[in-house]
Amino acid sequence: MDLDLELTKEHLLDNIKKGNLKAFKCFYDDFYSALFTFTHKFLSEKSDCEDIVQEAFVCFWDKRKDFYSISSAKSYLYKFVKSRSLNHIRDTGAKTIVDINTLNEQLFFSESIIEIETYQLLYKSIKKLSPLEQEVIELSIDGKKNQQIAETLNVSINTIKTVKKRSYNKLRVELKDKLKFLYFFFII
C-alpha cells in the first residue's frame, strides 16, 4: 500500500468511497494476496480461489460507500470469501484443504485471519529492510543455516551473523506494536 505512504488509512477509504480507482488499486494490491491465501485455506483449486476473491472485490467496490474504516472493509471481505467458499464447496462438492466441519468453526476463521495478517505484516516489514538484509532474512525463513546463506550470497559467515542480528532488531522494533494490536484486535 505505497500510494503516498498508504494514502493514510483514513484517507484511503475516503478516496475509494469517492470512486478513486488509484486508491482502490492500492487497497486491492495490498490485500489481494492475504485474501487469496485465506480463500486457499478453504479451497484447493487456485482458479476457484481467484474467482471468489475477484468477486469479493467487485462486491466491495459496489458497496464501498457503506464502509466506515479499512478494518470494516477487510472484515467484510474475509467474511464474504468465507461464505462464498463454503457455498462453493456445498454447491460443487469441491475439494477442501481442511475438513468441512473445521472450516465452519469460528476459531478456525479467527486463527486463519490472525495468521495471514501476521505474515502480511512480517513481509511488509521485511520489504523495508535493505536488499542484503531482505535476502538474509528470506533465506533464514526458508530454513537455511548461516553457513548456507553465506555461501549462497558469497559473503563471510560473520557478515551473515551481523546482518541477521541487525535485521531481526529492526523487525522487532517495526513489528512490536503492530503485532500486539493484531493479537488484541482478534482476541477481544
Structural description of this entry:
- The structure is a single chain.
- With 188 residues, the chain is mostly helical.
- 77% of the residues lie in helices and 0% in strands.
- The protein contains 9 helices and no strands.
- The chain has helices at 9-17, 21-40, 46-62, 70-92, 100-104, 106-126, 131-141, 146-153, 157-187.
- The radius of gyration is 19 Å and the shape is globular.
- Mean pLDDT is 82; it is low at 1-7.
Q: What's the SSE pattern?
A: HHHHHHHHH
Q: Please compute the radius of gyration using only Cα atoms.
A: 19 Å
Secondary-structure-based class equals mainly alpha
Shape, please? globular
Task: Please state the average pLDDT score.
Answer: 82
Number of beta-strand segments = 0
Sum up the structure in keywords.
single chain, 188 residues, mainly alpha, 77% helix, disordered N terminus
Please render the helix and strand layout as text:
Elements: H1 9-17, H2 21-40, H3 46-62, H4 70-92, H5 100-104, H6 106-126, H7 131-141, H8 146-153, H9 157-187
Helix pairs in contact: 1-2, 2-3, 2-4, 2-6, 3-4, 6-9, 7-9, 8-9
